[in-house]
UniProtKB/TrEMBL annotation:
Residues 267-301 are annotated as: Disordered. It comes from Urochloa decumbens. Keywords: Cell membrane, Disulfide bond, Glycoprotein, Glycosidase, GPI-anchor, Hydrolase, Lipoprotein, Membrane, Signal. This is X8 domain-containing protein. It is found in: Cell membrane. The keyword Transport does not apply.
Length: 565
């Protein structure tokens, strides 16, 4: 058995190695569309971006007013060359040079332009321009080279997923026959050669709404779910977005270019990355038989299961917050590419009232903000705001857990609560006690990188684990013994006096299980937290009681403010 002093040395060395070897996480940004009649001016938008902690923005043109407003802000910018310019760009390198000079070089480096998107979903929107796409990309890149900007500014083009002939299972992913060898092969070779990546417009929303009887909503949103297995590879997918990304990786490998990495190779270093330059979820809107996608094209929509609309504030908030948390945490890999780096851009910054065909078109409601610059729902792009917990890894084994637990308790963790008689002593289980100690140590050290490893005995999670115990983070739950009548009266009181009960309404994320005890627990806890957990605010004439361990009711974990920094 390793001596305690030796274990400490190993732990410290491991933590230091993890700290100094960690690469920067990917970038999470937004798409700034301007198809609205009531949008704020660019200067106001830039102030909003900075206030919100949004560090990257993607444009659908190279609007000079916007680019000037973004100057000297440190915000990374992606510009787009519109489809109608493709033919001229492909035909004349001189035209590409003029465009790059007047739309990129004139603004750089004051405005941190890092990418030029050549066209937008060309295969979907302007099929007749397909032969001109790669030549236009080559000429734009050549212009950047001539101006000495090619190291800083890359070239790509966003593809709609309709470019894939097959996307499930991901290992069967392949491009359509009409574009695979003629367009995608030279494009991927160009991206690899220039150090760029493939951009895709990925919308799990549309896949879900088309097949709600076959696709789980939690799987589409990226919420915790049992997952779906690709039987060809044995890989498990817990996110439809991951499946779409990996399908694109497999499709690239099937091109079988001599300069590409083939599908059966273990070396994937030469395969360009796949970045979702456009992804999001609408907060409202009525599905129609054939609405266009957010950036064009027709997709067939149907009603969601149980009569509940897929386009809802709760679903949009879940999807986009899952994206934000994922990228900020550095978890940008996929099952097939676990070490892949990835930038993502959420569609869209604003609700845009001139999109779609009618006032309630789902097209208009993908925004994070209303045009008056208030949030549609809560989110936070600031890395420091990302809530995280450190939990024990059961597979580490009892001896490793005990050694790491002892180390945590001896080096800053407050372990009084897991001593006999303490608030978190039960359950008397090594895994539970280790999770408590590891989490206390992790937060005591400011959640610094490397402070939740313990030589492999722990790992970080970004959803509060069910059963998490914290003596400083109390919750209020319903007392079933009070009876249904008393619980209903107290529930009504809580909802009418400050509790946010929207989540327990029909179609809300916490509606199930549909019973008074579950709904009362949610309402009581909301009331209690909003009142600052003041004494007496979790009584409800005996219908409520305070607990210190995170209770899970159905799919909902009752929230606490304790670890939200």
């Amino acid at each position: 058995m390793m001596a305690p002093s030796r274990l400490i040395v190993v732990l410290v060395s491991t933590l230091a190695l993890l700290f100094f070897s960690h690469e920067e996480a990917g970038e999470i940004g937004v798409n700034y569309g301007m198809v609205g009649g009531d949008l704020p001016d660019p200067a106001s938008v830039v102030r909003l971006l900075r206030k919100s902690g949004i560090t990257s923005v993607r444009l659908y043109d190279a609007n000079a007013t916007v680019l000037k407003a973004l100057a000297n802000t440190g915000i990374k910018v992606m510009v787009m060359l519109p489809n109608h310019e493709l033919a001229a760009m492909a035909a004349a390198p001189s035209h590409a040079l003029r465009w790059v000079r007047s739309n990129v070089a004139v603004h750089y480096p004051a405005t941190q332009i890092g990418l030029v998107d050549v066209g937008n979903e060309v295969f979907l929107k302007d099929k007749n321009l397909t032969p001109q796409l790669v030549p236009a990309m080559i000429n734009v890149h050549a212009a950047l080279v001539r101006l000495g900007l090619d190291a800083a500014v890359k070239v790509s083009t966003p593809l709609a997923l309709t470019a894939l002939e097959e996307s499930w299972p991901p290992s069967s992913g392949r491009f359509r026959d009409d574009i695979a060898q003629s367009v995608m092969k030279p494009m991927v070779d160009f991206l690899r050669r220039t150090g760029s990546y493939l951009s895709i417009s990925a919308y799990p929303f549309f896949a879900y709404i088309a097949q709600p009887d076959k696709i789980s909503l939690d799987y589409a949103l990226g919420n915790p779910n049992p997952g779906v297995r690709d039987d060809n590879t044995g890989l498990m997918y817990h996110s439809l977005l991951d499946a779409q990304l990996d399908a694109t990786y497999f499709a690239m490998e099937k091109l079988e270019s001599a300069s590409m990495v083939l599908a059966d190779s273990k070396d994937t270093s030469a395969t360009p990355g796949v970045y979702p330059s456009e992804t999001g979820f609408p907060s409202y809107g009525r599905p129609t038989p054939t609405p266009p996608s957010p950036s064009g094209g027709a997709r067939r929509l149907r009603a969601a299961r149980d009569g509940c609309p897929a386009a809802s504030v709760a679903n949009a908030q879940a999807y986009n917050n899952n994206l934000i948390n994922r990228v900020l945490s550095g978890a940008t890999g996929t099952p097939y590419r676990p070490d892949a780096d990835m930038d993502m851009h959420i569609f869209a910054l604003f609700n845009e009232n001139l999109k779609g065909d009618r006032p309630d078109d789902v097209e208009q409601f993908f925004g994070l903000f209303y045009p008056n610059m208030t949030k549609v729902y809560d989110f936070d792009f600031h890395r420091a705001a990302l809530a995280s917990w450190c939990v024990a890894n059961a597979s580490a084994g009892a001896a490793a857990l005990q050694a790491a637990l002892d180390y945590a308790c001896g080096h800053g963790a407050d372990c009084g609560a897991i001593q006999p008689g303490g608030t978190c002593f039960e359950p008397k289980d090594k895994l539970a006690h280790a999770s408590y100690a590891f989490n206390s140590y992790y937060h005591h050290n400011g959640r610094a990188r490397g402070t939740c490893d313990f030589h492999g005995a722990a790992y970080v999670v970004y959803h509060e684990p069910a059963g998490n115990c914290d003596p400083n983070a109390s919750r209020c739950v319903a007392n079933a013994a009070a009876g249904e009548k008393a619980l209903q009266e107290a529930l009504d009181y809580a909802c009418a006096n400050g509790a946010d009960c929207s989540a327990i309404q029909r179609c809300g994320p916490c509606f199930e299980p549909n019973n008074v005890v579950a709904h009362a627990s949610y309402a009581f806890n909301s009331y209690y937290q909003r009142k600052g957990r003041a004494r007496g605010t979790c009584d409800f004439a005996g219908a409520g009681s305070v607990v210190y361990r995170a209770p899970k009711i159905g799919k909902c974990l009752l929230p606490s403010k304790a670890w939200i920094l």
